[in-house]
Write a structure and sequence with these properties.
10 helices, Upper collar protein gp10 (connector protein) fold, alpha+beta, 335 residues, 5-stranded antiparallel sheet
Length: 335
Amino acid sequence: MGKNARNREKDKALQFFGDNFWQSRAFNQRAYAKNLHMLYSLAINRFRWVNLPDTCDARYLEWVLHTQGVATICHSPETPDIWQSLRAMFTGNYNIYGYPVEWTAGGFGSEVMGYTVTPDNGELVYYSRAQQWAGAVPFHPDLDLQQFARKMTHYERTEDINLSHQHTPWVFIAPQSKKQEVMEIFKQVSGGEPAVIGDNSTRDLISNVSAINTGVPLIVEDLARGKQNVLNEALMYLGIPHLAFEKGERMIEDEARANSAPTSVMLLDCLTARREACAKLNKRFGLDIQVYFNEDYESLNWNYINNIEAQAQDGLLSEPAQVDSDITDVPELEG
């Protein structure tokens, strides 16, 4: 079988044809891909870059930071007006504080590859401050997210299996000669269909087949809680605000602050590293690059501008005119 044929067979194996137990491999891979895609989307869209040069790509910059831990904003010595956000590959030369004194900039393909960068024509951008030291263990944040996605998938698929045991909580024991007939009955009952078997040997089937109730308890709530805990850990790792645990009574202010403190520190670890790079670029090259935690300010501003009552409460407008509910001289509509 050729390579293309094998790839087609592999793709076919990952397609869904109903909820069939023999497709567990496909369900496992789809569930893992779904969880990993969600975590990647959260990670890459956490920050909003402002005033990046038009020739830079903020999405690619965050992708490089997330997959390699470090990137560079720079320009080639031959084209000082064309700034680029690229991969950074260290050459092995560091200063007394452990920062590289030169590195190689590289793009996604071979078009932008291999020119040397120093503080004279660019700056390094680190994923986090913890990454800003030489000799560190290779740091790839995407590998950490893969661990979170794997554990979330394990909880999710275990929940599916537990539900399937509730749907069909029996194990049948039958002679080998009756196996196919029992399978047909089992499929009909599981699908909610009337189990009607037309066979002269039905009495033999009844007398020779027994069913055992597996008695598997329903634990989907515990599994869902475990998956949520893993997701909360991933959100803390990314510095994204979230409710870390459930509590029956209201939390006091100190409790809420202590609960969110690790998440805030993780966010500042990543945000400060990016802002330090912006400050160096702005000071050295007269740029005005800024980076913020990403929120939909455009929608918030639009909502506020179109909310007259909110503007009045802030003293920007006079009080909204009161409508007299006792008006009686409204003309009646004809017809």
